[in-house]
Amino acid sequence: MNPGLVRTETLAPPISTSRLLMPVLLTLTLAAMVPVFSVQVPPLADYINHLARMYVLTNLDNDPLLAKFYGVQWAVIPNLVMDLIVPVIAKHLNIYLAGQTFVVLVMAVQVSGCFALHYAIYRRWSAWPLVGFLFLYNNIMLFGFMNYLFGLGVALWGLAAWVMLREKPAAVRALVSVATVLILFFCHLFDVGVYGMGLLCYEGWHLRQKCLNGRKPPRNTVITEALAFGLPFLPVLPLMLVSPTMGLATDNYWESTGKLDGLYYIFQNYSDLFDLSVAALIIGGTIWAARTRMIALHPVGWYLLALGVVVFMAMPREFFSSWVADQRLPIALVFLLIGFVDFRDSNRWGRYFLYVFILGIACARFTSVFLVWQQLDRTYTDFRLSVGMIEQGSTVLVANADEPSGSDAFNAPLTHAACMAMLERSSLVSTAFSVPGKQVLSVKAKYRDRVDTADGDPPTVSQLVAAANQDRSAASDRYWNHWTEQFDYVYVLYTDNPANLAPELMKLVYQGPHFQLYRVNQASEEE
To answer: Is the pTM above the cut of 0.85?
Structure first.
């Protein structure tokens, strides 16, 4: 019996590949891409900051203004996949199109990984993995955690490869697994853990099956299999020891509040009413299909679900200085579990129902995202207009309004929008991702005290005013403490107030929706 399969008496007759599968797959793929290519900059919170880094990596050698501010320090960092892929694409496409291509690639790796894992388990193609399209636009994606999501897709493919090679020599599986682990390490450290969880559950089930069937393996075989499972993960230890990321090992904290939010992130986009309705439909449809025996979860899926709950509850909120560490796990479990679900109905009407259900909900979600992104794109267009008023090679400080207006869903895409000045004006931006151990981008020593190297919150306007009025000789490690001498421009985010918030210190240059651009007065006088 193939190790990926449940015993045949528990399965319905195999379902032949429907001629509708490929047309539906193509339709959903194109529909999922529409929001991404309908805007120049997908409004994902961290995305534009990452894209700005890609631009620096691509153009540092031929842009002296960028070279004045930035450098690149390549290191063993478990967060590099975008840095390795996008600059290569950007040699053939403009940086914006290169970024969009990477976003679509992330989606493709995830959905194809569901198909690969499902095929490895059941050895037949099925319409069921199309369910993955329902979860592509989740709140973890809206945060812009692209490396993590790309690695999630790789983990699905790696687990599928392990299952497909289960009857091959242990050495073969170990070699493929070590390659998977190394790729995952440079995608994101958390993805190594996701892959390890899947592998552990599959191997635990496989060993139990042999014991239940009275075929308890010899001790030598158990040791060999354990080594094939465990040895591929050993390279992670020396890699972490030489990685600057180890300097962030103490930046951890755990909290219970927000665990439910992590579950909601699976469905959350922009409208709670719409998202909760979609969640109710998906959960209700899944329960109905399970009760009517249309679907069944492979035993490995139950193991994975149990282990996932334990890990989710134990996992800290911040881990190695990575934000919402625990809240990223539920969406990973969803994609893994999709691969372990067997769609048992051999009746073609059951397949038609599945196609209609997935097409209807997925396209509704894609349309919802598309409509919101069109609104956000208008804000981004205004932001780009303001960026055009910034002088080339300027220094830009990002600040927050004292009393932010607007909703979190619409404010989040503005968080790093000022990094457009890196792409468009070769500027130094205070919020550019340049944390040692997290990114390869570095800021030259002369300007290092002007950027946030701790991924903290930007200052508020009142804090800037207070800093401007303090003793200039006073020592401070705040990067914005001497902002009136060190920055040319200030962006104030999350404000609709048209008034100049500090006329004695800066001049309003551009009023946009939810943001303002100021020219620092002292910087103007010095010139």
So the answer is: yes
